[in-house]
Amino acid sequence: MIRRTYIPFLLSVWMFLFASCTQRADEDARYYYEQGRALREQGELTQAMQVFLKAAQSGTKDEALLGRVYSNMANMCRQANEHEKAFSVYSVSAGHFEASRDTLAFAYALNNMAWEQAVMGHKDSALLFINAAVRCYPHPPLTEKVTESRAAACLFAGEYDSVLVYTAPPAGDYLLMLRAQAFSYLNMQDSAACYARMLLPRTTDLTYLDDIYYILTHDDAEADKEAIRLLSSERMDVQKDIELRHGKLSRAIQLMEQEWDREYSPWLMIAYLCALLISIGLSVWAIFIHRRHCRLHHELSQQEQIRQRAFQRNILIIRESKDIRRELEWENFSALCTQLDKRFNNFASYLKNRGLNEQDIRLCALVLLELSYKEIAKILNCSPKSIGKQKDITARKLGVSGGKLAERLRLPMDTMDT
C-alpha cells in the first residue's frame, strides 16, 4: 500500500512546495514593484531600475504585475530618449498584459509602442499599432491617448497641418504642447507663443518646459529683452536638470542592458534547457516506475485470484464427494498430508512446522472444509461438544481465537505469520 501511494504523495508534496514558492515570488514581486515606483518618484532612477529588475527576475507568475514592471522600465527608457530600447521593453510588457487578459493595459502598451515608432519616424508602423490598440479597446480613456499618438506621428513626419487637426481643441497638456510645436514649425510664432504661455503654469515636466522656453525665447515677439533673458536663464536651469536626469537614466539603462543580456545569455538558456530535460526525464522515469508497479500489482492480484479460485474449487470438490475420508485418504496420515499439501499449497507441512500434531492437523483440515461440528465429530469419532474445546486449543497454537481459525486457515501460508 505504501508503494502504491508513493508517487502520488511525492507529487502532492512537490505541488505544495511549488505553490508556496510561487506565492512567495508573487509577494516579493509586488513589494519590489511598489518600492521601485517610490524610488522613481523620488528621483532615484538607478536604484528604481535595480528594484524593477529584481521584480522582473523574482519568478512571479503574475502576468499583469510583470507587465506593469516592464512598462515602468520602458518609461524610463523613453525619458532618456532611448526609443528603440523603450519600444522593445514595451513589447515585452504588451506580451505580459496579453497573457493576463488585461485588455485596457494591453491596448495602452500597443499605444506606447505606436508612440515610440512615431518618434523614430516610422509613421506607418505607428498607425498600425494605433489601429490595433483601438480595435482592442475602442473606449475612453484610451481614445484620448490614441489621439496624442496620431498627432505625434504626424508631427515627427512633418505633417504639421494634420497635427493642428488632431489637436483641435487641445484637451490635455501633451496635445497643447504638440499644437504649440506645430505652429512653431509652421512659422506662426504668435500662435505658438500663445499656446506655450497657456501650458507654462500647468506643467512641471522638464521636457515640456524645455520646449516651452525654446518657443517663448525664439518666437515670442511680444516679450522684451529682459523677459527673453529671464526665459533663457530658466531654460538653462531646465536643461541642467534634464542633463542630470539623463545621466541617472543612462546608468539605469546600462544596468538594465547588463541584466537583460545576463538573463537571456546562451549559457543560461542552455542551463534552463538542461534543467527542463532533466525534469522531463525524471517525470518519465517516475511514470514508468509507477506503471510498472501497477502492472506487477495487477499481475499479483490476478495470481491471487486464480489461487483463491483453485482453493475454493478444491474445497467444493472434497465437500461434494460421497466420502470425504476416501477423497483425502483419511486412514493414512502420511497420504492425507500429501493430499493437503498438493491441494492447498503446503497446508499440512506448514501446520507441522508450527508444532501441530496429527489430531490438530486433521481438525484443521475439516475446519478448512467448513464442515459443521456434527459432521466433524462424525468423522473424528468424538462428541460435538469436544470439538469446540479442541478447536480453541488448536487455534491458540496458531495465535488466533477459535472463532477466527477458519479465516486464518484460508489465508496463504506465507502470510499466516504476519
Task: Note the main attributes of this structure.
Serine Threonine Protein Phosphatase 5, Tetratricopeptide repeat; rod-shaped; 3 domains; mainly alpha; disordered N terminus; 20 helices
Briefly summarize what is shown.
This protein has 418 residues and is mainly α. The chain has helices at 6-41, 45-56, 63-79, 83-99, 103-119, 123-136, 142-156, 160-166, 173-185, 189-199, 206-219, 225-263, 266-320, 324-327, 333-343, 347-353, 358-368, 373-380, 384-397, 405-409. The chain has 3 domains: 62-156, Serine Threonine Protein Phosphatase 5, Tetratricopeptide repeat; 158-262; 306-415, no CATH class.
What report would you give on this structure?
The structure is a single chain. By secondary structure, this protein is mostly helical. The protein folds into 3 domains: 62-156, Tetratricopeptide repeat domain (Serine Threonine Protein Phosphatase 5, Tetratricopeptide repeat), CATH 1.25.40.10; 158-262; 306-415, no CATH class. The chain contains 20 helices and no strands. α1 runs antiparallel to α2 and α4 packs antiparallel against α5 (103-119).
Question: What is the strand and helix layout of this fold?
Answer:
Elements: H1 6-41, H2 45-56, H3 63-79, H4 83-99, H5 103-119, H6 123-136, H7 142-156, H8 160-166, H9 173-185, H10 189-199, H11 206-219, H12 225-263, H13 266-320, H14 324-327, H15 333-343, H16 347-353, H17 358-368, H18 373-380, H19 384-397, H20 405-409
Helix pairs in contact: 1-2, 1-3, 2-3, 2-12, 3-4, 4-5, 5-6, 5-7, 6-7, 7-8, 7-9, 8-9, 9-10, 9-11, 10-11, 11-12, 18-19
